[in-house]
Amino acid sequence: MKSERIKPSACPHCGKVLDCASCLDEPEAKPKKGDLSVCVGCNSILAFEDDLSLRSFSHDELNSLPDEHKRVILRTRQMALDMKSGFSWKI
Asked: 91 lies in a domain?
């Protein structure tokens, strides 16, 4: 999995500075406005802005996503939690 450097941006929930992003499904993908991410510090769901900074992604926004997109972001969030606890996913 390849990481893409992004504009350093503090998570609005925990303050962790995030400066790279990875795509689980498409290793060569680059983030763009509206793409979602998960904070590696607190596991909050975030969205990319035009300048690739990150903003909070609300519960209302999450609930408005198609079910498949919800499953993907929630699976990504769970994988991040598992990795923090020492569980290793085989992708």
From this structure: no
What are the structure tokens assigned to 16, written together? Answer: 């962790």
Domain that holds residue 68: 3-84
Is 39 part of a structural domain of the chain? yes
pTM value?
A: 0.82
Question: What does the DSSP assignment read for 1-57?
Answer: --EEEEEEEE-TTT--EEEEEE-SS-TT----TT-EEE-TTT--EEEE-TTS-EEE-
pLDDT 10s digit of each residue in the chain, 91 long? 578 888 899 999 999 999 988 887 787 888 999 999 999 889 999 999 999 899 999 999 999 999 999 998 998 888 888 877 776 656 5
Cα–Cα distance measured from residue 37 to residue 62, given in angstroms and rounded to the nearest whole number: 12
